[in-house]
Amino acid sequence: MLVRCYRAKLSVWAALCVLVLCWFYIYPVYRLPRDKEIVEEVLRQGEVWQKNQTGIDLYRKLLTDCCDPRRMFAVTKENSPMGKVLWYDGEFYHSHTVNNETYSLFVQDNPLQLPLKKCAVVGNGGILRHSRCGQHIDQADFIMRCNLPPLSKEYVEDVGTKTHLVTANPSIIEKRFQNLLWSRKAFVDSMKVYGSSYIYMPAFSMKPGTDPSLRAYYALSDTSSNLTMLFANPEFLRTVGKFWKARGVHAKRLSTGLFLVSLALGLCEEVTAYGFWPFSVGLDEQPVSHHYYDNILPYKWFHAMPEEFVQLWHLHKSGTLHMRVGHCPPQDGGSS
Ligand SMILES: *[C@@H]1O[C@H](CO)[C@@H](O)[C@H](O)[C@H]1NC(C)=O
Ligand SMILES: *[C@@H]1O[C@H](CO)[C@@H](O)[C@H](O)[C@H]1NC(C)=O
Ligand SMILES: *[C@@H]1O[C@H](CO)[C@@H](O)[C@H](O)[C@H]1NC(C)=O
């Protein structure tokens, strides 16, 4: 009787502990500034920005030490030989053992010409709409984009035309292209807008994402497309996630944008970020759509966009990267 009572008490305490832990997980002790405060802070800072070589060197070193982007950002024959176990970074206990079939799909080694000079990382935020940043973006030496964004005529002035690396989430293959189980033409055709860039796919992050990613690889290689498929290395994604977690980003998973910025900080001499603005109101107090091409909101608890923005803003203030959050100034000589 006594033992049973004791046990019951114990489980009540255990349940309470779990509740409290959950509470702290969902509502961390520190307080994130409210959106309005962040907007005000950004307005105060204005267009003032000065490059800080010390900050750039520091972050390249920090990221090299934690995550080794040069060697690890993609799955290569070099870092993932036959028999290597790749642990999915978005799943609890799943892995893929590199075999004959998958090994042959990996690039030999990091294919990028390093170091990259001026890099532009283009997020898909609605803030880009009417920004006239297209020319600025296209002038970068290496341009990274997120999640196969549309680059059709109506957006060119704001987002530019060139791409050197574009990420593709396997879920897009599923939603937009019927998982490539039927025709692959629509997919191959829609990829042409990215020229001869790298398609960067997290093929080994979630179990259901592997097959669509491999199918995307075959669709491109069978049609002798000019694009090169790179599979994101789950080990790299995991270490970058840890890097930001230690700096206060409590998301279940980092956004693609922050991954790309981290990659750029590790590989580029200069980084400018466009289209990162996770707030529904712009600097001119006008509503801002979620993406520059639509206003579909993401699943709420998955990413922690304002937290990520605060981190990026710190880097901006210290001169480590340049965030463009408003309109881009007209260029001398313009389009002539
Ligand atoms: C430059 O970056 C370093 C390292 O992040 C930082 O300690 C320093 O304060 C920055 N300098 C300026 C002027 O912001
Ligand atoms: C890999 O495949 C090739 C032919 O496709 C075969 O000759 C070779 O033995 C295979 N290697 C292993 C380790 O299975
Ligand atoms: C690949 O690039 C070449 C040269 O830029 C171009 O002529 C060709 O049409 C491209 N192929 C495809 C499938 O887009």
Structure explained in plain terms:
With 336 residues, the protein is α/β, with parallel strands linked by helices. The chain is built from 13 helices and nine strands. The protein has helices spanning 2-26, 35-45, 53-67, 69-72, 100-103, 134-138, 153-159, 170-176, 185-191, 210-222, 234-245, 256-267, 305-317, and strands at 85-87, 95-97, 116-122, 142-145, 165-167, 198-201, 228-231, 268-274, 322-324. The chain has a seven-stranded parallel β-sheet with strand order 7-6-5-4-3-8-9, with helices on both faces. Strands 1-2 form a two-stranded antiparallel ribbon. α10 links the parallel β6 (198-201) and β7 (228-231). The longest helix is centred in the N-terminal third of the chain and has 25 residues, at 2-26. Bound molecules: 2-acetamido-2-deoxy-beta-D-glucopyranose (NAG) (3 copies). Residues 192, 225-226 line the site of one 2-acetamido-2-deoxy-beta-D-glucopyranose.
CATH homologous superfamily, by name? Glycosyl transferase family 29
- In the CATH classification, which architecture applies? Alpha-Beta Complex
Q: What is Rg? A: 22 Å
Q: Any ligands, ions or cofactors bound here, and which?
A: 2-acetamido-2-deoxy-beta-D-glucopyranose
What portion of residues belong to β-strands?
5-15%
Total count of strands: 9
CATH C-level class: Alpha Beta
In short:
The protein has helices at 2-26, 35-45, 53-67, 69-72, 100-103, 134-138, 153-159, 170-176, 185-191, 210-222, 234-245, 256-267, 305-317; strands at residues 85-87, 95-97, 116-122, 142-145, 165-167, 198-201, 228-231, 268-274, 322-324. The protein is an alpha/beta fold.
